[in-house]
Design goal:
Elements lengths: L20 E4 L3 H14 L4 E4 L15 E2 L6 H21 L10 E5 L2 H16 L5 E3 L1 H7 L15 E5 L3 E2 L2 H14 L3 E3 L4 E7 L2 E7 L2 E4 L3 E3 L5 H6 L8 E10 L9 E4 L4 E5 L5 E7 L11 H14 L8 E11 L6 E5 L2 E8 L5 H18 L13 H4 L14
Parallel strand pairs: 1-2, 1-12, 2-8, 4-14, 12-19
Antiparallel strand pairs: 3-7, 4-6, 5-6, 9-10, 10-11, 13-16, 13-17, 14-15, 15-16, 18-19
Helix pairs in contact: 1-5, 1-8, 2-8
């Protein structure tokens, strides 16, 4: 009897000299785009290029939170569609991505925060997303470990409760998509860096990599952190600024918290994994950088604010701290579109701190745009041209922490 399977999740390939499509960035966005190109449109002569190992970028550096309780109608519809794809993912991929829809609470510590959350609750409910304002009694029932006294500098007054929000195993999502892509014959190339993009007049014609050159008529930039750098290769400027965002995990504790807790006022968000570790995230660093180093001031901030919410965690040890790199747009909404000046070049970038939640639907919509030439309704608001046309989609108020 065979007890263990040693089947590879994805195979290694020589890089071919030509593909129908090349995707730069094999995180959740690039993988989802390739997956849906193959699954929905039968396009499988696709190469996914990843400059490091799979999940080395923001797909493995986020705090694994999923939710749909955004601020704008465009954002709510989009992230809700993504959450629905996450709900089906384990059975669709035949691979457990350990989605835990434990519920998500965004705390309000001021009257103006309550007003902001009320607008979100109304928009969410209007669009069929389960989300409502609750007071301290209900918060206490849901999260008995939270300090609801008047002791903290900013006592908790209310919360936006979003029951379908929760957490997922982000590495399982990456591996599940990679395995599914591999099974369709889509090639995954880790440690393969795009160093240049070839153009033939107003069209893309190829990608130069550290492993050789590829000719192709379709290139999708699905990178996070390096979106502007990749776009510089084709002289397409992006309205993006890039900041590190740090997080940490503590030593494992007994079950203590079974909701995601977010406080924009305290610049912190906390959840407990099924291994018992607390995952704690901060606001973005105060300066632009491509550094993935974590810093002591941010760790001190995360610890201070977490103890405002959960003073009983005093003395708990931190095991790891890390940073991801966030490409922030002016309106905190993404850019998913083609580029008018360059045929065959596509963007799925500018995710700021929202990228992981959106991976499945962004990939599905981008695949549809690439395969059919038609822009799916869900991504129509997120074109690059919106910045020129003054059609911003203001999603800053839905940020987990005030950036
Ligand atoms: O928007 O939920 C969020 C989030 C959590 C961490 C970074 N962004």
């Amino acid at each position: 009897m065979q007890l263990f399977s040693h089947e590879r999740m994805w195979r290694s390939h020589e890089l071919k000299s030509r593909y129908d499509a090349v995707i730069i960035g094999a995180g959740v966005h690039g993988l989802a785009t390739a997956y849906y190109l193959g699954k929905d449109h039968g396009l499988r002569d696709v190469a996914l290029l990843e400059k490091s190992y799979l999940g080395a970028g923001n797909s493995g550096r986020n705090t694994a939170i999923v939710r749909a309780n955004y601020r704008t109608a465009e954002g709510v519809a989009f992230y809700d569609a993504s959450l629905k794809l996450y709900e089906e993912m384990s059975s669709e991929l035949g691979w457990n991505v350990l989605l835990n829809q434990c519920g998500h609470l965004t705390l309000a510590h001021t009257d103006s925060a309550i007003n902001g959350l009320r607008v979100r609750a109304e928009t969410n409910r209007f669009l069929g997303v389960d989300s409502r304002i609750i007071g301290p009694d209900e918060i206490h029932k849901l999260v008995p470990t939270l300090d609801l006294s008047r002791r903290p500098r900013y006592p908790i007054l209310a919360a936006l409760y979003h029951p379908p929000g929760g957490i997922i195993r982000h590495d399982a999502v990456v591996w599940g998509y990679a395995r599914a892509c591999d099974r369709m014959g889509i090639e995954i190339h880790p440690f393969t860096e795009a160093v240049g993009i070839r153009m033939d007049g107003q069209s893309v014609s190829g990608v130069v990599t550290n492993r050789g050159e590829i000719s192709t008529r379709v290139v999708a930039n699905c990178t996070a952190g390096w979106a502007s750098k990749v776009c510089q290769m084709v002289r397409v400027p992006l309205p993006i600024v890039t900041y590190p965002l740090q997080a940490c995990v503590t030593e494992p504790l007994k079950p203590f918290l079974d909701k995601v807790i977010v406080s924009a006022t305290l610049h912190v968000y906390v959840n407990q994994t099924d291994r018992g570790e607390l995952v704690i995230g901060a606001e973005i660093d105060p300066y632009q950088s491509y550094s993935m180093k974590s810093t002591l001031p941010t760790l001190e901030q995360m610890a201070t604010y977490t103890l405002e919410l959960f003073p009983q965690l005093h003395g708990v040890k931190v095991l790891r701290q890390w940073a991801g790199i966030c490409d922030m747009t002016p309106d905190f909404a993404p850019i998913i579109s083609g580029v008018e000046s360059l045929k065959g070049f596509y963007l799925d970038v500018g995710w700021g701190t929202y990228g992981f939640k959106a991976g499945p639907i962004a990939g599905r919509c981008l695949a549809s745009l690439i395969a059919t030439g038609e822009t799916p309704k869900l991504i129509a608001p997120f074109s690059l041209s919106r910045f020129r046309q003054d059609r911003l989609v203001g999603e800053k108020a839905a940020a987990a922490v005030s950036h």
